[in-house]
Amino acid sequence: MDGLAGRQLDGIAELVGLASAAGIEVWLRGGWAMDFHLGEVTRPHVDVDWYCWRADAERLAGLLRAHGWRPDPRMPVHMQLDLVRDDVEVSVAYLARDAAGRVVVGAGPWAGTPLPDGMLTGPPGRIGPLAVPVISVAAQIEFKEMFPVWMPGRPRRPKDAADLARLRAAGADAPPVTG
């Protein structure tokens, strides 16, 4: 694949390879997670969104910096790991566990907020020969459904509505979230 999408796919392969070799768990989220679930690139993506455990973030950052990734000067620090290399941007949000063992937001103003049950237990996604861990389809749908509820000042974007339709058309077995 050529162009930005090809460079993003190369970055995805590199990040998952480095993380795996170091024993660091990562999961794709956002539009690329949907594409890997569907098995094809469905639209252009601005960046590549990931999750990792907060405890592994510094180690992951060091691995990526050693391979030419640099902090994105446009983004706030300590909320998540935002790196760029040439025209490819990656954002790694942090996960943690609460006292009850639930997966929660690991940093920032929503730190400690529970995330969807089963979010990290879905099967890997695949585009061509590249298989990577992705958040579950149910979590993808919940995030895209609930975003305008959680952030009332930011209405659902057309790309999110299209992504929801794609996920549902592909037979995702998650019920729509209401609220």
Keywords:
179 residues, Beta Polymerase, domain 2, six-stranded mixed β-sheet, 5 helices, 35% helix
Please give the structural blueprint:
Elements: H1 3-21, E1 26-29, H2 30-38, E2 48-53, H3 57-65, E3 70-71, E4 80-85, E5 88-97, E6 103-105, E7 125-127, E8 130-132, H4 137-150, H5 158-169
Parallel strand pairs: 2-5
Antiparallel strand pairs: 1-2, 3-4, 4-5, 5-6, 7-8
Helix pairs in contact: 2-5, 4-5
Characterize the quaternary organization of these chains.
single chain
Look at the structure and give the mean pLDDT: 89
Uncertain segments are 173-179
Tally of separate helices? 5
**What is the helix/strand order?**
HEHEHEEEEEEHH
Commentary on this structure:
Strand 5 (88-97) and strand 6 form a beta hairpin. The protein is α+β, with helices and mostly antiparallel strands and 179 residues long. The protein has one domain: Beta Polymerase, domain 2 (2-Layer Sandwich), CATH 3.30.460. It starts with a helix and ends in a 10-residue tail after the last helix. Strands 1, 2, 3, 4, 5 and 6 form a 6-stranded mixed sheet that branches. It has a two-stranded antiparallel ribbon with strand order 7-8. It has 5 helices and 8 strands, in the order αβαβαββββββαα. Helix 2 (30-38) runs parallel beside helix 5 and helix 4 (137-150) runs antiparallel to helix 5 (158-169). It is 35% helix and 21% strand. The protein has helices at 3-21, 30-38, 57-65, 137-150, 158-169, and strands at 26-29, 48-53, 70-71, 80-85, 88-97, 103-105, 125-127, 130-132. Mean pLDDT is 89; it is low at 173-179.
